[in-house]
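re: ur question from yesterday

yeah so i grabbed the chain u mentioned. its 177 aa long if i counted rite. heres the sequnce exactly as i have it in my notes:
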Amino acid sequence: MDRTRICIIGFMAIILSLFVTCETMGATDGKTTDPFDAQKAKELLVGQTVKVFAKGYIAVTDIDKVRQTNIAKLQKMDDQEFKRKYAAVYRDMNGLSPETKAAYGIDDKMDRSTTITKIRSATKDDLYTIIDSIPNAFITKHFEAYMTEKGLDLQQSLSTREIKRFWKNIRRKIEAE
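ran it thru and got these structure tokens back, copy pasting raw so excuse formatting
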């Protein structure tokens, strides 16, 4: 991996996190008592931070190696195992916009060979587009579930450290599948 790219992406992630944090604090510093504003600010903070991590991960990852690894895993699966695993993944993909699902042909009836074809043809730009289309509210819902699973209070624990832990958890799941 190119060390310079990693440093630049890390720097961008830190700057964006600081920017979003400042925006969030300004949105919830007592100027309003409307809880909707606080929720939107939290969704923006969590959603955009996770998206920056996801894009940074894709930018520095050897996409061809990941693609081949995942295609090999899919080829080893039988149809029943694929259907079971795809159903679980598809439940999470329901957070994608209908336009994104239509553009990339994501539906509940996708079979193994179609999935392999889509993985082979996916570019980093496609992945960036999909990441951008994930609603911040959807990411925040998963982040809150993660925090609950870990026994942490979101009001007390919303920190960059917890968001990084959440991202590491996502990466472990991606790399394990």
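noticed a couple things. The chain has ten helices and no strands. also Residues 9 and 56 are 6 Å apart (CA to CA).
anyway ttyl
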